[in-house]
Methylmalonyl-CoA carboxyltransferase
Amino acid sequence: MVPDPARHAEKEHALTTQERLDELHSLKQAARQGPDPRATERQHARGKLTAHERIELLLDKGSFQEIEALRRHRATGFGLQEKRYPSDGVVTGWGTVHGRTVFVYAHDFRVFGGALGEAHAAKIHKLMDLAEASGAPLVSLNDGAGARIQEGVTALAGYGGIFRRNTRNSGVIPQISVMLGPCAGGAAYSPALTDFVFMVRDTAQMFITGPDVVQTVTGESVTMDGLGGADVHASVSGVAQFAYDDEESCLEEVRYLLSLLPANNRELAPVTPTSDPVDRRNDALLDLVPQDPNQAYDMRAVIEEIVDDGEYFEVHAAWATNILCALARLDGHVVGIVANQPSSLAGVLDIHASEKAARFVSTCDSFNIPLVTLVDVPGFLPGVGQEHGGIIRHGAKLLYAYCNATVPRVSLVVRKAYGGAYIVMDSRSIGTDVALAWPSNEIAVMGAEGAANVIFRREINAADDPDTMRRQKIDEYRTELMHPYYAAERGLVDDVIDPRDTRQVLIRSLDMLRTKHADLPSRKHGNLPA
């Protein structure tokens, strides 16, 4: 039986101090243990930890300060009045991660399946308001069955309060959602409003309508994992940025991400001293990037060679793999890296790649993280599917994000940059602060082959040997317009650098830009492309 202080009200005057303390400890212990010891066993049998166990993994040891541990709901009807458990299915409080304050709430699946009711929501609202007022990150550990049906519309209103606070705090404090169990219906929109979503395979699912509803309405048969599991959202829908095999490794990576982020939008990300020299030569880059513009290579190897100690934290690694987004450090300072990936779809920009990069650029700009863009792009992906899917408006999202960003921005053309995709990838014309290129760069409207076929079509068709004429015209176009210094001669590239000096030049450029200040026009907000 869970202790209820109300039952002892009539004899409060007779309780000694020690008895009061014993009762307090009993109540808090009951809240931690849950309504039924077997519920904890069932939670562990599913491969899941309890709310307190998860919080202890996330936060520094002994740093958690819980609030409203004794909160109970006040609903009646449907038997709820007989089930008034302490904490009401959610654990809220704050602690530290690497010594820095972090607010956290965790659904307790053992109480009402983690379902949200009025009191449950009020606890989360209070915590979110504290996080906003304190200017500290908010982490939600999600494992709940949605709205508490027995409480009706008050439960739905509770979600509305969460969504409103998610939106108000967007770009103000980092918000991280960790999916450790089911998250269905309207509840899924809170994670969608946050900055980063982590999921654990096999135990976490997110969807608006479940498999049963899907089958009833559409006739499609699908499992919960097949509909909204971790790998689906990490590689197909793009809803989740990260997917892990177990809760321990997932929460450890959340801790690492927090170490790369500032506490709020008024601060800079933490600087970590490094023994990696600023002037370390990047000799390996001469061999990593092929001279042939059509030969694939892995841009991750380039990033590893440039950043501190070869360490970076990739975001959305399994989705839209033709573009890379990662957080890393250069001379101890956090930077956001956006890079085309020639080993996937030749590094073209398409709908998903544009959305992925735009979101990442916007996130970095929100939290004062400088941007480094590594360019090797042949253009936008052609095709009816892309055009009908809205590549124009989706590509415009990336363009908008870069043009709107006021953080320090440095771009480097690694090999080729063709057409509108070159402009979109943070070119000088849209506001990059420092535009660099390697001597192997080709910046042009399109590749030499395509350009020659358009410009010299009549000469080629009229020639006695069209193939020979085509090759001659391709060489002519490449010589006249695609040599490495054409853009530099016109001020569109600030410097053509030795690839071996890349790390040093990037660090010096970002150091120069550390005090950059840029104001946007006075406005309520921009109108982001749909």
